[in-house]
Structures are given as C-alpha cells and as structure tokens.
Amino acid sequence: MSSDATDRYKATTKQRIIAGVLVTVLxxxxxxxxxxxxx
Length: 39
What we know:
Elements: H1 3-38
C-alpha cells in the first residue's frame, strides 16, 4: 500500500463529501422554493 494511493483515496472521499453537501443544499433550496410557492 503506497502513500500515493492513500492520498488519492482521501481526496476522492473529500470530493464525495463536498458533492454530498452541495446536493443536500440544492435539495433544501428546491424544497424551500416549492414551499414558498405553495404558502
């Protein structure tokens, strides 16, 4: 197991976390706009 592989794995996990946060924020924004339209 080389350190390069571990670094690459850490980078991909970080990217996955960032992507997940972005998706969650987008979903919340969509829900908020829909609720605003209905209210």
